[in-house]
TrEMBL record:
One of its GO terms (molecular function) is trans-2-enoyl-CoA reductase (NADH) activity. NAD(+) binds at residues 52-57, 78-79, 115-116, 143-144, 248, 277-279. Its EC number is 1.3.1.9. Residues 2-84 form the Trans-2-enoyl-CoA reductase-like NAD(P)H binding domain. Residues 327-390 form the Enoyl reductase FAD binding domain. The gene is fabV. Monomer. Keywords: Fatty acid biosynthesis, Fatty acid metabolism, Lipid biosynthesis, Lipid metabolism, NAD, Oxidoreductase. One of its GO terms (biological process) is fatty acid biosynthetic process. This is Enoyl-[acyl-carrier-protein] reductase [NADH].
Length: 397
């Protein structure tokens, strides 16, 4: 079939297998060009578990582990398989492409597709590690999900993207209608806050580490990190100090709990704060498309624009595998300074204050945002023939 993007609201409902393969190849080539292994002061990862491995920051972590350090990688994701009539999800095609490239390079790559929040998938993962790897020395936690079924009670929790304390009126850009307009977001109630913490907080990260450790599949001195976005004043009302921010604060609690509960194995756990960029998760958050279109404009002018792969390659060399990495008072790594420093934020704020429906496309880099949005689904990628008839059914082995 000839596959063209089908965009519905903030999501694209199909994906292009050849485009996704090209995007994975581009990220692999970037990592190879960076020679991350020789830039790392410590010995890099050898056997890596990536929870949320198929898109965004998790995929970039998998690619950096494998093609930067030659690590064996086991991925966990939740993706839809293609059929003759319907394409698979981008994460499905990315995973298939990653497997092909890893295997061609002689690197172990296996993926478990299922609900990472469930104990069943945790147990399947443990068995797979026992069988194939023995132990893992790096565990990346990069899930982004709107809901989670509690494995103890079966209760389904849903996350909400709302301010906390008081309502908030701000500008937003509706990608569907090409419209800059004001929105008022009502404050979350306590139940919505609690449910968001249940989904996007640290409970599941901690549960993974405890179960893996009890099964004896975590190597002595292993590292684990979970990703967060902290941001600055412009995004605090809807992110940092909102429901999702409170959930992310719970990652700090979980990091301490993991260090404590796995101390006999000397496991280090750090939250890593990354920059805002276009992923399937961030495009669903109100205000973020407008904010990201503006930061792309400013950061491209400053020459500091980065995508997932650049952020993660930097995280590995300057934090995870550096001898004395800088951490803040919560023991977090930071990779977002090029976005959140005062001078850059002041430029973004000046644009933010001026932006209207009329000048939006001049003041922002929405073209760059939209290009990267399409790239997430394998579209608008250089070197891909989008008129060609392609088979949507691609499997991984
Ligand atoms: P993403 O949507 O690109 O990736 C999410 C991954 O989680 C995918 O691999 C998906 O398959 C997997 N997943 C979701 N639900 C699952 C489930 N139930 N079981 C198994 N796998 C599941 O998201 P992303 O933007 O890369 O976000 C990853 C992490 O990085 C999140 O914690 C996010 O908060 C954080 N982060 C994102 C940004 C940003 O701007 N995008 C910035 C900083 C931090």
């Amino acid at each position: 079939m000839v596959i063209k993007p089908k965009i519905r609201g903030f999501i694209c409902t199909n994906a292009h297998p050849a485009g996704c393969a090209k995007s994975v190849e581009n990220q692999i080539n970037y990592v190879k060009s960076q020679d991350v292994k020789s830039k790392s002061e410590l010995q890099g990862p050898k056997k890596v578990l990536v929870i949320g491995s198929s898109t965004g920051y998790g995929l970039a972590s998998r690619i950096t582990s494998a093609f930067g350090y030659g690590a064996k990688t086991l991925g966990i994701c939740f993706e839809k398989e293609p059929s003759e009539r319907k394409t698979g999800t981008a994460g499905w095609y990315n995973t298939a492409a990653f497997h092909d490239q890893a295997k061609a390079a002689g690197l172990y790559a296996e993926t478990i597709n299922g609900d990472a929040f469930s104990d069943d998938i945790k147990k399947t993962t443990i068995e797979k590690i026992k069988q194939d790897l023995g132990q893992v020395d790096l565990i990346i936690y990069s899930l982004a999900s709107p809901r989670r079924t509690d494995p103890d009670t079966g209760e389904v929790y849903k996350s909400t993207l709302k301010p906390v304390g008081q309502g908030y009126t701000t500008k937003t850009y509706d990608t569907d209608k090409d419209k800059v307009h004001e929105i008022t977001l009502e404050p979350a109630n306590q139940d919505e806050i609690d449910q968001t913490v249940k989904v996007m907080g640290g409970e599941d990260w901690e549960r993974w580490l405890v179960m893996l450790n009890e099964a004896g599949v975590v190597a002595k001195g292993a590292k684990t990190t979970a990703y967060t976005y902290i941001g600055k004043e412009l995004t605090w009302p809807i992110y940092g100090q909102a429901t999702i921010g409170l959930a992310k604060e719970d990652l700090d609690r979980a990091a301490s709990a993991i260090i404590d509960r796995l101390k006999s194995n000397n496991v280090s756990a750090n939250v890593s704060s990354l920059k805002a960029l276009v992923t399937q998760a961030s495009s669903a958050i109100p205000v973020m498309p407008l904010y990201i279109s503006l930061i792309y404009k400013v950061m491209k002018e400053e020459g500091t624009h980065e995508g997932c792969i650049e952020q993660i390659a930097g995280l590995y060399t300057t934090c995870l595998y550096a001898a004395n990495p800088a951490v803040d008072n919560m023991n977090r790594y930071h990779m977002e300074d090029n976005e959140t420093n005062d001078a850059t934020q002041a430029k973004i704020k000046a644009l933010w204050d001026r932006v209207t429906q009329e000048n939006f496309h001049d003041l922002s880099d929405y073209a760059g945002y939209h290009h990267e949005f399409l790239n997430l689904f394998g579209f608008d990628i250089q070197g891909v023939d989008y008129e060609a008839d392609v088979d949507p059914v691609v499997n991984w082995s």
